[in-house]
Amino acid sequence: MIELYTWPTPNGWKVSIALEEMEIPYVVRGVDIMAGEQKQPEFLRINPNGRVPAIVDTDAGITVFESGAIMIYLAELSGRFLPPDPAGRTAVIQWVMFQMSGIGPMMGQANIFSRYFPEKIPAAIDRFQAEVRRLFSVLDGQLADNEFLAGDYSIADIANWSWVRIHFWAGVPVDEFVHLKRWLDAIEQRPAVQAGVSVINRDTYELLIGQAGDVEQLAKDAFDLVQTGEK
Fold it and tell me: Who has greater pLDDT, 229 or 193?
């Protein structure tokens, strides 16, 4: 059995979607990051970095943190969404790393400067939103001739989708990226994806994609979390 320690964030959705897609039995252990539960000793024993998500494979006695590492672990455990041949495996992993090193950090900074900080710094906002836009163009180019990022649907698509789907929150529209938009819409229709973004508080997902909720309140709460760095 997999114990999933998570909260409704893009990195958390990456793992819950993967579990749903791979049909791996799991239980959810909510870690309320707004209440600081990720910094409590019980969770730090699972992830010393104090970040969600993390998993515990109770059957194997293995704990894994960092969302990219978790996705690779689950893909290998299930034998799904990560090709076994070196070329296919490398193609998938490089696009997972693209999300880990580019899409996630740059969208995160765009979120912070355009949404969370009460004082707006135009140069910082422009810099990070421009980089997010450039990264979106890279994905769009890859998807121009490919249905998915690396051959068949894979953990690369799950990882990138979970972040790109909240482009509203980063303030970067995707209307100009027709191939990226087609890909976003297609993946959103998958039942396992819908289940994965709903494991804890689907309202947060709908808020981050601009469909419902109190945007200003969430931004304030997130700013408090970012500013203190302790919760």
Answer: 193
Pick from 92, 96, 3: nearest CA to 53: 3
Model confidence at 219, pLDDT cuts 50, 70, 90, reads: confident
Q: Which residues pair with 28 in a beta bridge?
A: 4
Query: Residue 114 is part of a domain; what is its CATH number?
Result: 1.20.1050.10
Helix (H) or strand (E) run with residue 90 in it: helix 86-98
Q: Which helix (H) or strand (E) holds 28?
A: strand 26-30
In terms of pLDDT, which residue wins out, 213 or 3?
3
Does residue 81 contact residue 155 with C-beta atoms inside 8 Å? Answer: yes
Q: What is the value of pTM for the model shown?
A: 0.94
Across 48-62, 96-110, 112-126, 149-163, least confident range: 112-126
Q: Report the largest interatomic distance among the alpha carbons of the chain, rounded to a whole angstrom.
A: 50
Q: CA 188, 13, 91 angle in degrees (round to 5)?
A: 75
Residues facing 62 on adjacent strands: 57
Q: How many domains does the chain have?
A: 1
Query: Do 159 and 99 contact (CB within 8 A), yes or no?
Result: yes
Q: What is the mean pLDDT of residues 34-61?
A: 97
- Cβ count near 221 (within 10 Å): 15
Query: Is residue 5 in a domain?
Result: no
Domain interval for residue 166: 86-194
